[in-house]
Amino acid sequence: MIQLCSNDDPPVSFTVPRKAVELSKTIKTMLEDLEGFDMEQTPIPLPNVDAPTLELIVKWVEQHQDDPPPVEKPRVEDDDSDDSDADDDQEPEVVIPEWDKKFLPTDDEQKNQLFKLLNAANYLEIKPLLDIGCKYVADKISGQTVEWVRDYLNMENDYTPEEEAKLKEEIAWAEGL
Amino acid sequence: MIDDLPPHIILKIFQYMTVNDLCTAHRVCRLWNSMLTDWASLLPIRHLRRIEFNHEEKRMPRKGYWRYDGVRVAVMCWMRRMLAKRRRRVSINQIVAVEDCHDGSACFREGAESHMHSNPTDPALIGKRLTHVRARGVYIADWRPGLSSLLEQLASADLRLTKITLHQADMSGVVRNDLRLLFEKYAATLTTVNLCNLRGSAGRVVTDAVLAAAGDLTKLYVMAEEGRPSLNEHGLMPVFGFVTDATVDRFARRYNDTETRIQTLMLSSCAVTARGVAKLAKAWSLARAPGPCSVILVDCGVTKADVAAECERLDVELERVGPDGHFAIKHDSQAFKVHLLNVT
């Protein structure tokens, strides 16, 4: 078991199975680097993650610790000799699993927590979690108006009315596609 | 908040969006607008493909398909990449867009896979339709097979074409000749030629365009396929270029012999070298009565220092003018300007 500490004062610590915590590439690398030390006794401080976020992360890695590792597809060089009927080299569609759908902090008042979670997943390099988080945000925004997106993401409209009108006109054709 | 997220996470979110949502995203704020524009080529093509599947008969952009700005460049990049993937069961195999440049209203487009396999569009029919709408511009993309007969139809139709756009075509043998005839037919009216991702003797087509359309042709845009974007560098790699030194050399040599008045030559992701640019500048400065000329190099991997050095070797005096740091030479009060965009 590995202990993780949040950045709160005093730090909140969580005990996580090593297998689960290794879903985080950052921690996995660190543990490998510190091979030989007794990491079971040494809590790992996470200066960028607060307790509520760390709790979510711990829940997620424990749930997903037995997932098969993602298959790393080798990048195919796109040369002209490649005339095969190979499939597109696009990334596969990300599907958010049912458990994760319930797990993600999806209520509107929790959206700050969602972004904190994304940031932590990024810092800890938990790619699958980052993927589903980003996919969730993209889906959430999908089909909404500009005003709704700004409101949801708490973003400031820094266009002048003229610029906004011009931009709207410019992309009007694309919206009709 | 979302502002705290590092840019690559925002990019990831964008990558899961559809084209329509990206259009919304452009309008959210300046930062997003500029991020989307910078990253246009990194965004996936699947969304556009889906759109093309579902909406075959929708409008074309009303204007300025090739302008380098915001959403258009984004869609253009998707389009280019998608067309480049044509071998891999991509939905669009042929698109013909016709723009009536008078008011932009008489646009129509034909496309989608079905035409290719079961119902190839009859070039004669297209000729008739073009005449009917008094088309001033044609946009031909990935038109195979039968490009040759389409070009013939266009050349024999009674039109006043001012703009020809050819995207993703094989320029070998007979097609190149048909295209040359087309240029000659519309020499008097043609003002803009866009050539994008041509294969075969594409470099010669550039020369043909310049030579045939002497006089009124003022804008010539040439683009090559961009390289596989590298996420790490957040940039593009110029590869697959087809405009070589030899092409520019020919272009330069004939500059003096013809009445060519090219005002804008844009080469994007082409394998052009600093020496080629310098030769062109030299040809221009030796011409009897050159008009103003702008050479815009986008993603060509040519640096200012290279161009300056090559110009020096050819005794072309480049002076630095303008706040954007482009180069220029002056001759009889006319200027030859070299703009380098996206140079690392």
Automatic annotation (TrEMBL), chain A:
<comment type="function">
    <text>Probable essential component of SCF (SKP1-CUL1-F-box protein) E3 ubiquitin-protein ligase complexes, which mediate the ubiquitination and subsequent proteasomal degradation of target proteins. Regulates cell proliferation during embryonic and larval development.</text>
</comment>
<protein>
    <recommendedName>
        <fullName>Skp1-related protein</fullName>
    </recommendedName>
</protein>
<feature type="region of interest" description="Disordered">
    <location>
        <begin position="62"/>
        <end position="95"/>
    </location>
</feature>
<keyword id="KW-0833">Ubl conjugation pathway</keyword>
<dbReference type="InterPro" id="IPR016073">
    <property type="entry name" value="Skp1_comp_POZ"/>
</dbReference>
<dbReference type="InterPro" id="IPR016897">
    <property type="entry name" value="SKP1"/>
</dbReference>
<dbReference type="GO" id="GO:0006511">
    <property type="term" value="P:ubiquitin-dependent protein catabolic process"/>
</dbReference>
<feature type="compositionally biased region" description="Acidic residues">
    <location>
        <begin position="77"/>
        <end position="92"/>
    </location>
</feature>
<dbReference type="Pfam" id="PF01466">
    <property type="entry name" value="Skp1"/>
</dbReference>
<dbReference type="InterPro" id="IPR001232">
    <property type="entry name" value="SKP1-like"/>
</dbReference>
<feature type="domain" description="SKP1 component POZ">
    <location>
        <begin position="1"/>
        <end position="65"/>
    </location>
</feature>
<feature type="compositionally biased region" description="Basic and acidic residues">
    <location>
        <begin position="62"/>
        <end position="76"/>
    </location>
</feature>
<feature type="domain" description="SKP1 component dimerisation">
    <location>
        <begin position="127"/>
        <end position="174"/>
    </location>
</feature>
<dbReference type="Pfam" id="PF03931">
    <property type="entry name" value="Skp1_POZ"/>
</dbReference>
<comment type="pathway">
    <text>Protein modification; protein ubiquitination.</text>
</comment>
<dbReference type="InterPro" id="IPR036296">
    <property type="entry name" value="SKP1-like_dim_sf"/>
</dbReference>
<dbReference type="InterPro" id="IPR016072">
    <property type="entry name" value="Skp1_comp_dimer"/>
</dbReference>
<dbReference type="InterPro" id="IPR011333">
    <property type="entry name" value="SKP1/BTB/POZ_sf"/>
</dbReference>
<comment type="similarity">
    <text>Belongs to the SKP1 family.</text>
</comment>
UniProtKB/TrEMBL annotation, chain B:
<protein>
    <submittedName>
        <fullName>F-box domain-containing protein</fullName>
    </submittedName>
</protein>
<dbReference type="InterPro" id="IPR001810">
    <property type="entry name" value="F-box_dom"/>
</dbReference>
<dbReference type="Pfam" id="PF12937">
    <property type="entry name" value="F-box-like"/>
</dbReference>
<feature type="domain" description="F-box">
    <location>
        <begin position="1"/>
        <end position="51"/>
    </location>
</feature>
<dbReference type="InterPro" id="IPR036047">
    <property type="entry name" value="F-box-like_dom_sf"/>
</dbReference>
